[in-house]
Amino acid sequence: MKKIIGIIIACILITLVGCAGDSGHEGEAKTPSGSSVQEGRDYQEVVDEFKEKGFNNIKTEKLEDLITGWLTKDGEVESVSVDGDKDYSPDVWYSNDVEVVITYHTFPEKEKSDKESSEEESSEEEQSTNDTTEEDEQSANDTTEEDEQSTNDKTEESNEEILTVENNKDLAALLAVKNENDPTVGEFAKKYAGRTIEFDGNIAHMMPHGSYKTRYDILIFAGDYSETTFSGPNFKFEDVNIINDLNLTGSNIPDTIGMGQNLHITAVVEEYDENSGLFFLEPISTEIR
Length: 289
Known about the structure:
Blueprint: H1 2-23, E1 28-30, H2 35-38, H3 43-52, E2 58-64, E3 77-82, E4 93-95, E5 100-106, H4 109-130, H5 134-158, H6 169-175, H7 183-191, E6 196-208, E7 216-222, E8 234-240, E9 248-249, E10 262-273, E11 278-288
Parallel strand pairs: 2-5, 8-11, 9-11
Antiparallel strand pairs: 1-4, 3-5, 6-7, 6-10, 7-8, 10-11
Organism: Sutcliffiella horikoshii
Protein name: DUF4839 domain-containing protein
Keywords: Signal
């Protein structure tokens, strides 16, 4: 019995000491995960985490350096500093009013405004379509027929000679650009929409499409893979299956492919998205180099 009473008293003393320790940090806040752990997270989640820990002087700074949002996502944290220290440690007590600065990546304001304007225009066009009268519907049917004819024309064009750097100077110039926003990229996409191109390229990045495990979004650069340099626009195969869509060919087809793989690509020109800087292609065949 004396032993049990002794244990109970010891527990009470430990509890009292713990409470005394907490009361000694009035007006302070304890850091969450260290700065290196915060990198790559969504900045708003990091803001909320510091607020929950008791910090009340939190500032955010934008790095308007995104072009495509492919490798780095909009809102992704670059660094976090506490009281000017970017290498702060977790679980350290600071005055709760020290400055916490969260720096994150985002698109330039102009690009965001252009994207929002485009979305508003799309919404207005959708509303206008819903309000179409019977006369307008007939006109829309006529337009659909014209679009179908245009699609058929593009299909016929795709059966024309395949464009290569040897027989088409525009393709050669396209694959040599060093800036995905080069005006020649959009010009080429409009001029040769529906045509088939053939060129040497490489997988610059590859990731699952949404929640799928067998379908992927693949970023393609021209020429051989390099970690330091790139050439050509940001070509993209979107929502493709490696077996059914890429149609891999060659003398040595691997079980899987990934970033760094050199390929010889034959694909149809789809469209160029000026907002994202992505040039969409539809793969026809992909030969391992």
